[in-house]
Amino acid sequence: MLPTSISSMKSLISPPFSPFSPLSLHFPKTKPFAFFSLPSKTTNVSYPKFLHVNPSMPSPRPPIFSIPIRQSHIETPQSFSPCGEVHVIVGPMFAGKTTTLLHRIQAQSNNGRAVAVIKSNKDTRYGLDSIVTHDGMKLPCWALANLSSFRQKIGPDAYDQLDVIGIDEAQFFEDLYDFCCEAADHGGKTVIVAGLDGDYLRRSFGSVLNIIPLANSVTKLTARCELCGKRAFFTLRKTDETETELIGGAEVYMPVCRQHYVDGQVAIGTARSVLESKKLECGSCT
Ligand SMILES: [Zn+2]
Fold this sequence. Notes:
The chain has helices at residues 3-7, 97-110, 150-154, 156-161, 176-186, 258-285, and strands at residues 33-37, 85-90, 115-120, 130-132, 138-140, 142-144, 164-168, 190-195, 217-224, 231-232, 234-237, 253-256. The chain has 286 residues and is an alpha/beta fold. It has a domain at 3-42 and 79-223: P-loop containing nucleotide triphosphate hydrolases (Rossmann fold, 3-Layer(aba) Sandwich), CATH 3.40.50.300. The strands form three sheets. Strands 1, 2, 3, 6, 7, 8, 9 and 10 form an eight-stranded mixed beta sheet that branches. A two-stranded antiparallel sheet has the order 4-5. The longest helix is centred in the C-terminal third of the chain and has 28 residues, at 258-285. The chain is elongated. Zinc ion is lined by residues 225, 227-228, 230, 256-257, 259-260. It catalyses: thymidine + ATP = dTMP + ADP + H(+). It comes from Gossypium stocksii.
């Protein structure tokens, strides 16, 4: 990430959230289903009351315009605890992970908390200065190569005043575990993480599963199987590329149920062997 790119990013602390008008929320046909969620012990904290935020700050460096009164997250108000929370949202592609993340970020912002959202700079499909869901919701964000650079990029003072950090496409961040530990355990932040739990071969993807032991809550979302409409738990890659990280949308991936994942893998394997045999035939033709 070049400094000029970073400097052109919009403010992320308590952004305006105009894209979040409830009327503008449209779920895709792959409306997510949360099939398990472990509720946080500390979800009943009372949030600060509220400092209104300035929605339009043109400064390239995020200004500090919301300084919430941080309240203790523990039940004993006599002793201040700096501890925050970690919440994890996983599932296949098209399950609504980013939409869920943005809804939670919006809710936190509506409660007067200072928020910021980070995404990987590997995913450039919708530009680097915003986070966009498959159904068109959009929010300014920091696009970074790693999470450890976030504090320096946003500035230590701005970082200290943040209450909530959202992380999207978390499977691309190798330093996810250390960042969540530091931010929640020592920084007092609420970290909301969204990412793929598995890759197209249903192997653990990046560090997302590593942070489950850190989490206050885990939510696994499902999509709709593109072939039969049942719940989809997996992401099937439709092309024959084999690298783990292949950025793409519906042209490359589709959500599938277990049966169609298995059938799809067989079909793809068959198609690949047919194509390879055709290549051999063509090679011998000339
Ligand atoms: Zn199916």
